[in-house]
Amino acid sequence: MFENFVEQLSASVDAADLREAMASAAAGFDFPLFAYFIYPSVPGDAPRLISNYPSRWTSRYLQQRNHSLDPGDPARAARLGYF
């Protein structure tokens, strides 16, 4: 499964390909949905979210800036002393 994931990633040319590769890998672990958040490298730029969650959910997640509350954010976790 890991080899297939790496091959799919290597062949990816756009966000749709990445979404498919990640969805396939997540499904291999019996996770029907996944979300991969990308913090902007330049302050003020919009964050990116690659996900197979319904667009209604992802739109709300981004609009409400829930990524800033997510404990999976390493910078936030460090600020709060999680790690």
UniProtKB/TrEMBL annotation:
Signal peptide: none annotated. The keyword Cell membrane does not apply. Pfam families: Autoind_bind. It comes from the Bacteria. Keywords: DNA-binding, Transcription, Transcription regulation. Residues 15-71 form the Transcription factor LuxR-like autoinducer-binding domain. The keyword Chloroplast does not apply. Gene3D superfamilies: Transcription factor LuxR-like, autoinducer-binding domain. GO terms for molecular function: DNA binding. This is Transcription factor LuxR-like autoinducer-binding domain-containing protein. It comes from Mesorhizobium sangaii.
